[in-house]
What does this fold into?
Amino acid sequence: MSNVLMNTKDHGLTPDTTGKVRDVFDLGSQLLIVATDRISAYDVILPNPIPGKGVVLNQMTLGWYDLFEGTVATHFVTADVGAYPAPFKDRQELAGRSMLVKKANRYDVECVVRGYLVGSGWKEYQRSGAVCGIELPGGLVEASKLDEPIFTPATKADTGHDENISFEQMKSIVPGDIAEKLRDLSIEIYNRAHEHARKCGIILADTKFEFGEIGGEIILIDELLSPDSSRFWPADLYEPGRSQQSFDKQFVRDYLDSIEWDHNPPPPELPDDVVQKTFERYREACRQLFPNINLEQYL
It folds into this structure.
């Protein structure tokens, strides 16, 4: 695989912002967002990349943007490198893994929707019978499907760990009427995405969205329903009461837990087989959800 990108600065480009996975260039009223092959786990960037991962993330986001066109506005402008301004125009290392977007005023919350009881939600339920202040029925097991998806926001941390918060706490970060709109929109998008994924043989267990505002309009920003921001499970292997096989970075988390890493820097390197199997899971999720996307042209 020839298209590997750990940092855009290695190609003579200096991003204005560097996130866990994305390098962002501020172009005034627009941003250029580049999905690198970096991977984070437990909010810590791991030292070696997953080659091609950024392409999968970017292409899946574009696939979801197309699916939701007319339902919700997004910040997307173009992913055609030939239409980018200098010095990004026609840079082939950016092809397939980048997009030009409108700059929005970001709401500083992660809009998390859970349709199944897993991850931190499962741990919290075991302790208290609730998730982010939402009481759930007794007797649920790991990976139980919830009667209705629940909205469980989290703080938005550029570095360090995101923290689950209640809906009432969210209202102290964004105005109450906006919080309600973000909650309702998040659940609507999750439900539609869950329905599409089920038709493709995949269960969308949970996901997180980010929103911003332009001219008073709420819009989707950043990645959308990718294996970095969501849990995807093979539907034919789903069985409540245990950890599920997945098409996402849970595979990496499971490896890190198996070697008893304490989730604090410095993180360990991933073995080659874990790197390869992680990429294969990401690619398979994209192939099943969006069979018309040709990833190989960018890899």
Remarks:
- The chain is about 25% helix and 25% strand.
- Helices lie at 53-67, 119-128, 167-170, 176-199, 250-258, 272-289.
- The chain has two domains: 1-103, 106-249.
